[in-house]
């Protein structure tokens, strides 16, 4: 934890950002309070995240007036991981669902690189390469035995420099409107 004071705004108020735990007590300082819903998402490292947080900045008493400013809503379902691979080697790109109350036949998973390149699809619990980009043909290994545990990770073989970038795993449920997203940043080392 940093003991260094954060910079002041032009009004002279400091913005202290804390973890979403207890609300710190302080007078005439800015306090950040997180209000969270009861939804939780567990990623592949079993870190529990709260998907929706409203950040409210409560400014200290300024001339006898308590000022409330709502900053916004943050969707924390999207989690970003970093994976480093080497030219010619393989990496596993993690993706798992926190929702275990859906039938596998009701789940679709779409892997995309940089938001647009079709890497791999799992449709109604079955592997599909119908729309797969040619650069990934015969380079993706899946783990169907893990699908029942809602693990949709993929293994990318024979890495090239073109593979570097952001990979997103979109998990949708046919009877549910929310989409789960897990993002992995892939860095490639080597000649």
UniProtKB/TrEMBL annotation:
Compartments, as annotated in UniProt: Cell membrane
Which keywords does this chain's UniProt record carry?
Cell membrane, Disulfide bond, Glycoprotein, Immunoglobulin domain, Membrane, Receptor, Signal, Transmembrane, Transmembrane helix
Is Membrane included in the keywords of this UniProt record? yes
Q: How far does the signal peptide extend, from start to end residue?
A: none
The membrane-topology field of this record reads: Single-pass type I membrane protein
TM regions (residue ranges)? 52-74
Q: Does the keyword Transmembrane apply?
A: yes
Domain Ig-like per the UniProt entry, residue ranges:
88-185
Q: Name one GO biological process term.
A: cellular response to lipopolysaccharide
The GO cellular component terms are: external side of plasma membrane
Tell me the InterPro entries matching this sequence.
Ig-like_dom, Ig-like_dom_sf, Ig-like_fold, Ig_sub, Immunoglobulin_dom, T-cell_Activation_Regulation
Q: Out of the domains of life, which is the source?
A: Eukaryota
According to UniProt, the name of this protein is CD276 antigen-like protein
Q: What organism does the UniProt record list as the source? A: Labeo rohita
């Amino acid at each position: 934890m940093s003991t260094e004071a954060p910079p002041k705004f032009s009004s002279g108020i400091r913005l202290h950002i804390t973890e979403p735990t207890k609300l710190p007590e302080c007078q005439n300082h800015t306090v950040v309070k997180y209000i969270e819903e009861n939804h939780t998402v567990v990623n592949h490292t079993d870190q529990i995240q709260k998907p929706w947080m409203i950040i409210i900045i409560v400014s200290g008493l300024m001339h006898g007036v308590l000022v409330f400013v709502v900053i916004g809503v943050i969707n924390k379902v999207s989690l970003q991981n970093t994976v480093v691979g080497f030219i010619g080697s393989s990496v596993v790109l993690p993706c798992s669902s926190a929702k275990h109350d859906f039938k596998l036949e009701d789940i679709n998973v779409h892997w995309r690189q940089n938001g647009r390149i079709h890497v791999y699809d799992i449709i109604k619990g079955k592997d599909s390469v119908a729309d797969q980009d040619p650069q990934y043909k015969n380079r993706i290994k899946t783990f169907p035995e893990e699908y029942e545990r809602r693990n949709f990770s993929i293994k990318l073989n024979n890495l090239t420099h073109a593979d570097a970038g952001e990979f997103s795993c979109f998990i949708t449920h046919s009877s549910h409107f929310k989409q789960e997203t897990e993002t992995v940043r892939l860095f490639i080392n080597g000649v």
